[in-house]
Amino acid sequence: MSRHNDLDIGLVVGAHGRHVMIETPEGRRLIAHPRGKKSVCVVGDRVRWQAAGDEAVIEALEPRRNLLARQDEWRTKSFAANIDLLLVVLAGEPMFSESQLTRALIAAEDAGIAATLLLNKIDLPAAAVARERLKPYREMGVAVVESALKADPAASRRTLAALLAGKTTLVLGPSGMGKSTLINLMVPRADAQVGEISQALNAGRHTTTTTTWYWLDDAKSGALLDSPGFQEFGLMHIAPQRLAELMPDLRTHLGQCRFYNCTHRHEPGCGVRAAAERGEISPNRVRLYEGLWDELEAGQRKG
Ligand SMILES: Nc1nc2c(ncn2[C@@H]2O[C@H](COP(=O)(O)OP(=O)(O)OP(=O)(O)O)[C@@H](O)[C@H]2O)c(=O)[nH]1
Ligand SMILES: [Zn+2]
């Protein structure tokens, strides 16, 4: 037990550098600063804090259930902690990138976070192509739901309300797929909620440099977290040897390779490649695996 257990608890709802905004169980919001040099809080964290004038000092971080992060060659960035669901917003126009999708799913799998894909803009003809590209993902067990956030907001709202109720959901998506439309549809007073946080943290109203926390309803039974940064989804924190087990369609065939340390790239007697040749793994996914392997291995050599 931590010696800080008698302190009040706070939920981190915004972060800008070392400035953090916490919300108390009664709904009061305070600017908070971590004690000491390290800036360890991310949105979604629960912290123990003490008052320091009008502001708060964070004394301890409660244990995290999970943490979704991306890491490039230079640094790690955290999206959020203690997430129930990752919702990836995709569309056929502009066409989503399968590489970005695969990276997000690998990071979620590594963090132990369930993921659902939202295929948006199903009113457009290109949705058929996108639906087809998502087939391998559906087959490997990833949930896919569909919406037309702009063209049919009422139906989309019903679909999403059922999906999001009672959960803390992190929404990610490439630019132009409908992420902002989703937030404005599902979150009452979304602009006011984000404005309050960034103003207090001096971040400026339109610099969404970090994750934003939105309550879905006045009862605060669910929340949406909006994060930028989907475009550069670095996975440098993952060892290449772990990739296949983080890809469900490859994972199914593990344990059938001749060599225990098979990389599933060129070894004879590889169960994964045999499955790919039988058409049981999509060629795109095999290519993505190989590309990621090279990238992560090169990163390991440097590091
Ligand atoms: N046809 C169609 N267009 C949609 C739908 N949902 C959103 N859009 C449009 O797609 C465009 C992008 O939507 P946004 O919500 O701004 O997308 P975003 O992902 O937030 O993009 P950024 O703001 O660039 O990050 C806008 O012009 C929306 O009006 C839909 O269901 N159907
Ligand atoms: Zn193999």
UniProtKB/TrEMBL annotation:
<dbReference type="InterPro" id="IPR010914">
    <property type="entry name" value="RsgA_GTPase_dom"/>
</dbReference>
<dbReference type="InterPro" id="IPR027417">
    <property type="entry name" value="P-loop_NTPase"/>
</dbReference>
<keyword id="KW-0699">rRNA-binding</keyword>
<dbReference type="InterPro" id="IPR004881">
    <property type="entry name" value="Ribosome_biogen_GTPase_RsgA"/>
</dbReference>
<feature type="binding site">
    <location>
        <position position="262"/>
    </location>
    <ligand>
        <name>Zn(2+)</name>
    </ligand>
</feature>
<feature type="binding site">
    <location>
        <begin position="173"/>
        <end position="181"/>
    </location>
    <ligand>
        <name>GTP</name>
    </ligand>
</feature>
<feature type="binding site">
    <location>
        <position position="270"/>
    </location>
    <ligand>
        <name>Zn(2+)</name>
    </ligand>
</feature>
<keyword id="KW-0694">RNA-binding</keyword>
<keyword id="KW-0690">Ribosome biogenesis</keyword>
<feature type="binding site">
    <location>
        <position position="257"/>
    </location>
    <ligand>
        <name>Zn(2+)</name>
    </ligand>
</feature>
<keyword id="KW-0378">Hydrolase</keyword>
<feature type="domain" description="CP-type G">
    <location>
        <begin position="70"/>
        <end position="233"/>
    </location>
</feature>
<feature type="domain" description="EngC GTPase">
    <location>
        <begin position="81"/>
        <end position="231"/>
    </location>
</feature>
<keyword id="KW-0963">Cytoplasm</keyword>
<protein>
    <recommendedName>
        <fullName>Small ribosomal subunit biogenesis GTPase RsgA</fullName>
        <ecNumber>3.6.1.-</ecNumber>
    </recommendedName>
</protein>
<comment type="subunit">
    <text>Monomer. Associates with 30S ribosomal subunit, binds 16S rRNA.</text>
</comment>
<comment type="function">
    <text>One of several proteins that assist in the late maturation steps of the functional core of the 30S ribosomal subunit. Helps release RbfA from mature subunits. May play a role in the assembly of ribosomal proteins into the subunit. Circularly permuted GTPase that catalyzes slow GTP hydrolysis, GTPase activity is stimulated by the 30S ribosomal subunit.</text>
</comment>
<dbReference type="Pfam" id="PF03193">
    <property type="entry name" value="RsgA_GTPase"/>
</dbReference>
<dbReference type="InterPro" id="IPR012340">
    <property type="entry name" value="NA-bd_OB-fold"/>
</dbReference>
<dbReference type="InterPro" id="IPR030378">
    <property type="entry name" value="G_CP_dom"/>
</dbReference>
<keyword id="KW-0862">Zinc</keyword>
<comment type="similarity">
    <text>Belongs to the TRAFAC class YlqF/YawG GTPase family. RsgA subfamily.</text>
</comment>
<feature type="binding site">
    <location>
        <begin position="120"/>
        <end position="123"/>
    </location>
    <ligand>
        <name>GTP</name>
    </ligand>
</feature>
<keyword id="KW-0479">Metal-binding</keyword>
<keyword id="KW-0547">Nucleotide-binding</keyword>
<feature type="binding site">
    <location>
        <position position="264"/>
    </location>
    <ligand>
        <name>Zn(2+)</name>
    </ligand>
</feature>
<keyword id="KW-0342">GTP-binding</keyword>
